Amino acid sequence: MVQFKTKRKSRNLLKLKKLSQHVPKSVYQKYQDQELKLFEDQNVEIKKEETDNEIINKRQKVKQSYVELLQDEHDEGINVDLSKVARLRKLMKKDGQTKVSGKEYQKRLREFYQGKIQSSAFLNWSQKQHIPQNETKELTLQEILTQNVQDVEYKSQILPSKIIDIEKAGGTSDKIRGDAVVQCISFHYRLPLFVTGGLDKTLRFYQINHNKKIELKKVITLEKYPINKVQFMNTNNDVIVSSNFSTVLLSVDILTSQVKQFRAPQSIQQSAHQSRFNKQIEFVLEEDDKYIAIFNDTGYIYVLDGLQKQFLFEFKQNEMSLCGAFGEGYLFTAGLGGKIYQWNLREQKIQNVFHNPGGNEINCLSYRANNLAVGTRTGIVNIFKFDPLKQTFDKQPIKELQNLTTQVDNAQFNEFGDILCISSRWKENALRLVHIDSLTVFENWPDQFTILKKVNSFSFSKDSRFLAIGNENGHVRVYRLLHY
Questions:
Q1: Start-to-end Cα distance in the chain
Q2: Lowest mean pLDDT among 205-219, 229-243, 434-448
Q3: CB contact at 8 A, 271 and 280
Q4: 62-to-57, 58, 261 alpha-carbon distances in Å
């Protein structure tokens, strides 16, 4: 290659000599400068090729030196007895060989610890998960609802206290979020799909996909119906909706967007129009959709069939009914006077009445796994224990939580009853997660870097893997509970 270029150089010099005799000096000088520049570039290329080869050779020599350093000739003459030391017995194999050479000892150590790292779940977060292409394809709402999803089994490990393993899974962007306050959130009973509602009269259905993104799947607008509460049915794809400004409840089919109305009994409708305190009609849905309880400040509680929406029977308590919860074949209600009523649904009568300590106004109730959480106006949350033998609650709470300084607006257990979430809408980041086994609040979340704003609503998914939180700005942030 170098010889060829030198011949080419000599030929160009002869051409220059011939040109100098016939071409003017200015043109000849310009041509000569161009040729000199070309020769310099060729020399630089030759040097670059040589330097690249030198670098490759140096790297190979360094690799060889590393290999020589790692291989010690003296290791072959060393014999290690694995049976003498207890911590080395784990390296013995089935052949019963107790003495091994130094090289074999290093090999067994390497195999043992590599197996330990691969079988440990501690480093799973660093492994890149392979997502098939068919899962990344965007599905329509109808395809999502009709697909077969396997039930996720609950982990047998006990949920640790004090520290909860949680991470942000996504949130609604400015393009897909609503402008109104998120008044309510409800998860689908078997899919990572949730619905939000607000005073903008709009139901928004979101899906949590595999890329930790929240996708807006469908929007249903209800004319002249500001939404106060929405809840998914547990046996079909309908949602039940209530409003602050209407005595009519709606059943909405999310596939066809068909809306059906069902009304509360006439007495509760009349009182809702005449009341000065609370015009809205609240409802509670039982877990298997067997009953729907409807109530407001009149004290009357009307129980309807969950599927047919037909009136069954009624109860009457001596004060305003502000909240309720189903559990163990009973309906629990509470209100302004601080009393908790336990109604027997089978016998259609009162079972028990007991006072919440302090007699404070009760804003919310939640029941799961023999525990009843009672949120009050003063910010105190009491947890009562249900006795399955006596079929009543203990009169004194097993725990009084004072972690919120403003009134408690929402309280909800997760599906397995080992986490209680409580929140207040009157202060920023006023949300706490309670570990039920130890009856203590998790210390690490939310921390100073968690931005929740003023929390108006939240909901756990049915498998407890996700927690969706809605605030006053219309944003919904979804968090992943890594224990499940």
A1: 67
A2: 205-219
A3: no
A4: 9, 6, 80
Quote the CA–CA distance of 423 and 233 in Å, as a whole number.
Answer: 24
Return left, alpha or beta for 471; rule: phi > 0 is left, psi -120 to 50 is alpha, else beta: beta
Cα(434)–Cα(162) distance, rounded to whole angstroms?
A: 9
277: tokens are 């305190």
3-state DSSP assignment of residue 343 = strand
Dihedral sign of CA atoms 327, 329, 334, 338 in order: negative
286-336 pLDDT per residue, tens: 989 999 999 877 888 999 999 899 999 999 998 888 899 999 999 999 988
Q: What is the pTM of this model?
A: 0.70
Q: How far apart are CA 373 and CA 393, in angstroms?
A: 12
DSSP result, 76-122: GG-EEETTTSGGGGGG--TT---EEEHHHHHHHHHHHHHHHHHH-ST
Q: How many CA atoms lie within 13 A of 87 on its CB side?
A: 1
Distance CA 162, CA 442 (A): 4
List the one residue out of 180, 195, 171, 215 whose CA is nearest residue 474: 180
| Cβ atoms within 10 Å, residue 34 | 9
Which residue type does 394 have? Answer: D
Three-state SS at 153? coil
Beta strand ranges found along 286-418 (DSSP E)? 291-295, 300-305, 311-316, 321-327, 330-335, 339-344, 349-355, 362-368, 371-376, 381-387, 392-393, 399-401, 410-413
Strands 476-481 and 166-171: antiparallel
pLDDT at 124: 56
Least confident of 27-31, 103-107, 246-250, 426-430: 27-31
- For 64, list phi and psi in degrees, rounded to 5: -65, -40
pLDDT in tens, 99-146: 888 778 888 888 887 766 655 555 555 555 544 444 455 677 777 777
Type of residue numbered 140: T
Q: Checking phi first, is residue 313 left (phi over 0); if not, alpha (psi -120 to 50) or beta? A: beta
Task: Output the six-digit token pair for 108.
Answer: 């067994």
Distances (CA, A) of 126 to 116, 163, 350: 16, 20, 55
Asked if residues 215 and 209 have their Cβ atoms less than 8 Å apart, the reply is: yes
Query: Is the separation of the CB atoms in 247 and 274 below 8 Å?
Result: no
Joined tokens for residue 26: 């200015």
Least Cα distance to 429 among 459, 399, 449, 402 occurs for 449
